[in-house]
Amino acid sequence: xxxxxxxxxxxxxxxxxxxxxxxxxxxxxxxxxxxxxxxxxxxxxxxxxxxxxxxxxxxxxxxxxxxxxxxxxxxxxxxxxx
Length: 82
Known about the structure:
Elements: E1 3-4, E2 18-19, H1 28-44, H2 52-62, H3 68-80
Antiparallel strand pairs: 1-2
Helix pairs in contact: 2-3
C-alpha cells in the first residue's frame, strides 16, 4: 500500500512520490527541497552546516542512498579524523 509522502500547499506542484517501506526521496528537485528545508530549520535555531562532507551526507540521506544511522557513523568518523 502506498501513501502520499507529503501534502502540497494549495497552488503548488503536487508531489507524486509515495512511501512504501520507508520514505525515500529520489528526484533531485525533491532532494534539493529537503536540503533547503533542513537548512531553514537549522538557521531558525541559530545553527548551520558548513562542512561540505557533512552537507553531502544530508543529500545522501534525502535521496535514500544511506540511512540516518550510517550518516551519523560517517559524520563522527569524519569529525574524529580532524
